[in-house]
Amino acid sequence: MESIPTPSPEELAKMVEKAQRDLQAALEKMTPEERAQAEARAQQAIEADRAYMQALVADAAKVAAGFPPKEAEAPKEAEAPNFCPNCGAPVVPGGKFCAHCGRPL
Ligand SMILES: [Zn+2]
Question: Is the pTM value of this prediction over 0.70?
């Protein structure tokens, strides 16, 4: 095996032409059933990509709507008020009573 030299643009064009001829020859050898199967596989790959993109968009929409998975894992902390609803004093997250006025939280 000799080392592969970097092909020139002309050589690259010939390689692309040959690949296209090979592909065309392969397609012509295919039966209509084989061609339909190949097209079905290509379609499935496109559908899988589309489903993946839709999942990404759905996740982004959830985050944008204010429901990131992080908050869903710790709902108690997310629901705890940061300020006493009675006197407005800052309260410790997860605390049961306001340290300022004693109101149950
Ligand atoms: Zn208070």
Answer: no
